[in-house]
């Protein structure tokens, strides 16, 4: 396993990490969750991603029970949570990035995960109802209290991230160091263009999600016999299904799969390796519901050396979606 710095911080994260979205406490049995974490940890994965909203908190409970049972040395792994959506409550104080919810959500996550502190804490979405100053101050104070070590954002715009940094400079506060955006062959504009200057200025670390475009880049949705138990057929992902299962993408997936075969690998490994090729990626979060799936995907780093300039150009020609910088 190779490790990369999380932006300009000194934290070293495994370039492949493991996340519990959709699966833990929801799609798979707890014993499978434990086996998956075993496989990841034994392979050198040191970052395990979670959030308050995943299975309405149950995902964190499952992960917390596993961590307690394993009794791995606390200095050998990194755990995250995210705050914004809450755990299913509908009242206005049960979600968002106001000070009340952030503090209560952090305490609840620590309890569910059975940890004394979170290594990373993400603002899961921007909150238009709360001043960014309030959110920044709250995250700063949680670090001073020893409840979190690093804080960051998820799916924030470049402008919102820079506003947070301006506030930290103005009041000499601890700044966010990481962003968790979606990034894959079909979702590139924000990561490659919008954030491009932030990598150079404040040194943004990134923990990317959906490297396989919710399974589209495995090729399984191109089959005539699609497994309706697959991720995109779950009720809670209906919003994502309509954006992902598009005829134009199916044709590109077919061409990419053929090219991967020419390279002697699979479309899945090629897609993950393509993400790793980008040095602005700190870590690629893998998700899995089956042990064999995770074992295979952990081999992705071995494919990166195959991605020569010529190979990358061939992929670019197939995708035909290279992001355009403003003014060009």
User: How many structural domains are formed by the residues?
Assistant: 1
What spatial form do the alpha-carbon principal axes imply? globular
Described by strand count, sense and barrel closure, the largest sheet is: 8 strands, parallel, barrel
Approximate helicity band: 40-55%
Under CATH at level 1, the class stands as Alpha Beta
Helix-strand sequence = EEEHHEHEHEHEHEHHEHHHEHH
CATH architecture: Alpha-Beta Barrel
Poorly predicted runs are: none
Return Rg in Å: 19 Å
Could you state the CATH homologous superfamily? NADP-dependent oxidoreductase domain
CATH fold title: TIM Barrel
If you average the pLDDT, what whole number results? 94
Strand content: 5-15%
The number of helices is 13
User: How many runs of DSSP E, i.e. beta strands?
Assistant: 10
End-to-end C-alpha gap: 38 Å
What does this structure look like?
The protein is of the alpha/beta class and 328 residues long. The chain has a single domain (3-216, 276-301), classed as NADP-dependent oxidoreductase domain (TIM Barrel), CATH 3.20.20. Helix content is 42%, strand content 12%. The chain contains 13 helices and 10 strands. The chain has an 8-stranded parallel beta barrel. Strands 1-2 form a two-stranded antiparallel sheet. Helix 5 crosses helix 6 (158-171). The mean pLDDT is 94.
Highlighted features:
eight-stranded parallel β-barrel; 10 strands; alpha/beta; 328 residues; single chain
């Amino acid at each position: 396993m190779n490790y990369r710095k999380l932006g300009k911080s000194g934290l070293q994260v495994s370039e492949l990490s493991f996340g519990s979205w959709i699966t833990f406490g929801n799609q798979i049995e707890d014993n499978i969750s434990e086996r998956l974490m075993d496989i990841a940890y034994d392979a050198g994965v040191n970052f395990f991603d979670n959030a308050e909203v995943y299975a309405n908190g149950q995902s964190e409970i499952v992960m917390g029970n596993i961590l307690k049972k394993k009794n791995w040395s606390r200095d050998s792994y990194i755990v995250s949570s995210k705050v914004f959506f809450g755990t299913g409550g509908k009242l206005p104080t049960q979600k968002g990035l106001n000070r009340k919810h952030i503090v209560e959500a952090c305490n609840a996550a620590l309890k569910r995960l059975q940890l004394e502190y979170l290594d990373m804490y993400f603002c899961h979405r921007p909150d238009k109802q709360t001043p960014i100053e309030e959110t920044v101050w709250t995250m700063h104070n949680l670090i001073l209290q020893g409840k979190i070590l690093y804080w960051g954002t998820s799916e924030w715009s470049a402008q919102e991230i820079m506003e947070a940094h301006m506030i930290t400079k103005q009041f000499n506060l601890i700044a966010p160091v990481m962003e968790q955006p979606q990034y894959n062959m079909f979702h590139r504009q924000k990561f490659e263009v919008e954030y491009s200057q932030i990598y150079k200025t404040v040194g943004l670390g990134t923990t990317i999600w959906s490297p396989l475009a919710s399974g589209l880049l495995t090729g399984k949705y191109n089959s005539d016999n699609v497994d309706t138990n697959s991720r995109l057929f779950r009720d809670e992902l209906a919003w994502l299904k309509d954006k992902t299962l598009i005829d134009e993408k199916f044709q590109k997936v077919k061409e990419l799969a053929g090219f991967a075969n020419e390279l002697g690998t699979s479309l899945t490994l090629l897609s993950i390796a393509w993400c790793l090729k980008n040095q602005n990626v700190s870590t690629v979060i893998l998700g899995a519901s089956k042990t064999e799936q995770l074992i295979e995907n952990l081999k992705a780093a071995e494919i990166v050396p195959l991605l020569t300039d010529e190979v990358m150009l061939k992929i670019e020609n197939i995708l035909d979606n290279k992001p355009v910088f403003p003014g060009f």
